[in-house]
Write a structure and sequence with these properties.
Length: 80
């Protein structure tokens, strides 16, 4: 049992020492990704507020809808 615990402990130490990415680099990457995501969200909100601030309704909207529903004759003929 002592030998097994000793081997387990030494393997654990080796895994910690042989870490592929240092913790400082992980923190830096997480910080950079967080900043990038915040900037993207802010830019998307600005774009939304500039271009999509209110719905646009074309003039004569009601008559255009009525013509579509009533099926007024179209000057364009379908070809099949």
């Amino acid at each position: 049992m002592f030998l097994f615990n000793n081997i387990k402990h030494s393997l654990k130490n080796r895994l910690i020492k042989v870490s592929l990415v240092p913790k400082d680099l992980n923190r830096k990457v997480v910080r950079e990704l967080t900043i990038i995501l915040i900037i993207k969200v802010v830019l998307l909100m600005v774009i939304k507020n500039i271009w999509f601030d209110a719905p646009t309704i074309p003039q004569n909207f009601d008559s255009q809808v009525a013509e579509r529903i009533a099926g007024s004759p179209s000057s364009i003929k379908e070809t099949r």
